Amino acid sequence: MEWRHKDLLGLAELTKEEIELILDTASSFKEVSTREIKKVPALRGKSVVNLFYEPSTRTRVSFEIAAKRLSCDVINIIADTSSVRKGESLVDTGKNLEALKIDIIVLRHNSSGAAHLLARNVGVSVINAGDGWHEHPTQALLDIFTLKEKFGKIEGLNVTIVGDIAHSRVARSNIWGLTKLGAKVCVCAPKSLLPIEIERLGVEVFNDLDEALRDTDCVNVLRMQLERDEKTIFPSSLDYFKQYGITMERLKKLKRNILIMHPGPLNRGVEISSEVADGENSVILEQVTNGIAVRMAVLYLVTQARETIKNEAHH
Amino acid sequence: MEWRHKDLLGLAELTKEEIELILDTASSFKEVSTREIKKVPALRGKSVVNLFYEPSTRTRVSFEIAAKRLSCDVINIIADTSSVRKGESLVDTGKNLEALKIDIIVLRHNSSGAAHLLARNVGVSVINAGDGWHEHPTQALLDIFTLKEKFGKIEGLNVTIVGDIAHSRVARSNIWGLTKLGAKVCVCAPKSLLPIEIERLGVEVFNDLDEALRDTDCVNVLRMQLERDEKTIFPSSLDYFKQYGITMERLKKLKRNILIMHPGPLNRGVEISSEVADGENSVILEQVTNGIAVRMAVLYLVTQARETIKNEAHH
Amino acid sequence: MEWRHKDLLGLAELTKEEIELILDTASSFKEVSTREIKKVPALRGKSVVNLFYEPSTRTRVSFEIAAKRLSCDVINIIADTSSVRKGESLVDTGKNLEALKIDIIVLRHNSSGAAHLLARNVGVSVINAGDGWHEHPTQALLDIFTLKEKFGKIEGLNVTIVGDIAHSRVARSNIWGLTKLGAKVCVCAPKSLLPIEIERLGVEVFNDLDEALRDTDCVNVLRMQLERDEKTIFPSSLDYFKQYGITMERLKKLKRNILIMHPGPLNRGVEISSEVADGENSVILEQVTNGIAVRMAVLYLVTQARETIKNEAHH
Prior knowledge:
- Chain A is built from eleven helices and nine strands.
- By secondary structure, chain A is α/β, with parallel strands linked by helices.
- The first copy, chain A, has two domains: 16-136 and 290-313, Aspartate/ornithine carbamoyltransferase (Rossmann fold, 3-Layer(aba) Sandwich), CATH 3.40.50.1370; 139-287, Aspartate/ornithine carbamoyltransferase (Rossmann fold).
- Chain A has a five-stranded parallel sheet with strand order 7-6-5-8-9. A four-stranded parallel sheet of chain A has the order 2-1-3-4, sandwiched between helices.
- In chain A, strand 1, helix 2 and strand 2 (73-78) form a beta-alpha-beta unit.
- The two termini of chain A are 22 Å apart.
- The model of chain A has no long low-confidence stretch (mean pLDDT 93).
- Chains in contact: A-B, A-C, B-C.
- Chain A binds chain B through residues 44-47, 49, 73, 75, 77, 79, 82-83, 85-89, 92-93, 95-102, 307, and chain B through 33-39, 55, 57-58, 61-62, 64-65, 68, 80, 227, 264-266, 268, 285-286, 288-289, 291-292.
């Protein structure tokens, strides 16, 4: 099995085998971050551009560290209000970066489909680091990696995603990836935070949290995007916490080895209690650690693929 | 021929031979960016500070990549509103950077003459990355490099610069460089965008675009700085496009091998049509590629010169 | 003598011997910045995060250069208004960085005690780069390093700190460090800028500048934080300059080899005249140079200590 794509745009378009290849590659890279000298020369002389149209320190820093552990140069372009004043289109920016002979663009963009658009228009690799409400594949991959590390397999697991499913690229990517690998996925949210026809993605839908959690092996707790909405979709944070917050009280009724995941950053006391977030079922910080391994794997695989494609084109 | 200046401030003060030395050095560096490992150790252990008082992602990124391909460390100082609150003078900032034992300051500043002021006051190398309406020498050098690559020579070429000549450091640096190398330079703009006595720089002045383009080998299309002016100097973008926009219709009447240049970022449909920008006469993205080679050459030459000067001082 | 702390939080908690160890280590690193290739492999494969909740280009750049001269990777997190919108707590941010397997957090924070809070909650090293009005240990260490370089010793020296003592972490760290090493410290400020019970730190307090400076070997001139206060604490900059500004006229009455220090950036004509700042008694730029050596030493020592602690835990 070989990785054949110059880009990583979403889990929707990957096969089970391709997802497993990323996970296996990540496994072999995980050890690098435990060394005294946390660096391998795999991508020396290559360069990655973090092209972020939305602020996201966490994802940017994770990719930056992953790239540097592969000995890759990193250039950050944070398109805040001041620097995008000149208003070049995404495709033009991409073509310019390609002309600079960089190797990979890690793109965070507020529009769904932005990564696909860019990837179609440039020869460099594009890694989708979150596009609108669409996909955030490396986040889902690190979630799945963490699950697999804990349970040894994905097939047959019950995973419940709780929170604002409608506006969550993390949920969407997890659903694609987990169902392909044979997990059963449930989503749980108030109706206002559920997208229509979500069942079509092969998930079971719940409005009641206790029902949703009954047999679950892992709860993936989504962040309430408090900063996103001026008018609240939900009555209040406190109401949300009562009905959908993951608390110790709820946890006690569930499987003893249940895993608690959260993509971060946490709203403690909104979607999760501190006791649960810091408790022994929580693998939230392990997710962060695994994010480096997964991103190293993706950076590595797309580079290999691009070079294979280039070499084949020369024959 | 040896490069003897610790700085690169403008093309006005360079001889023909010095400009040619930069172009030849850039030629030899261009190949580095086509390697699998795009890195040479030429400036290992040196550091460049990108000191930008105006936002310019393009130029900053180009210098950052060029420096990293020379194995040079890069520190970015983007003096936006928040970080310049403490209001240190440019010279004091420069002296502090010198005390930090950095090697090169790449300066972008909104005041004409800022790079000269800084260079006179510090021992480190200063590269002018654009000062007010004055000069932007590396942009002109990459334009000239691209011209020479395409035509084999500069002498005897007809180059027409179209657009807001009055407020363009790119125009000014191109005029200095091209005329020194023996090209004939025409400028074309509405009267309100022409500086007074521009003829003194040895260029021919046109207000009518079709007249200006008649025998030209290359059109360098300037960006309309739409974001710069609150009140428009010109009636409207649409009017500008009609009278001064480079369109396919106009292109068809010109030399078949005419080159279309633009320093970017493009205002499609303002100073240039998309068809032309993306067409086969356009070398806009090649300019971007050549920018890396030219900036590597400049970073390298000023470092060599500074070390020669230092060694001579010791004898 | 061996360094045993994973963190550097302040000079209040260090012994005389520990401070001297940092100074000696800095001495041995100072030479690196004079080499042609300014780089040693001491921290290769490690990573430092500059986590800055207050803008401070000077300190950030100094740490960034110091880390890079040790071959350490540097990731900048500048928590401006846009990127902290998501509002994660300092401890959560720290735990996330730890999960990313970074080695050192250099923290600048507007709350006194922030560095201590963070250090208690993470296993990575924390270097305090300024916390509220509390401490700024590397600034004081570079001041003391400069003093020792000039006078050969600290014991018995008279040092006077002039300016806004009440709001100065630089003053506080200097007082702790200097008194431990046996210097006599005087502080001089208008009453409104003196903290209550400052005498308890073992300093002599003056309101009159000329009296304060009489026998001093070094004046450390604090920056008036003009940008910090909307309403001025002191009548006006001009009044301040008259009463507390360090001028040539004042300097002439003092010891001939008196040193003038300033942590920068300078307010010329407010707390110091240009003639003095640029004069032969000024060591202001040498302080900047020494800052690199001191920060290299601190980055190196905390890393060594953390590895010693880790190895001991394994036995």
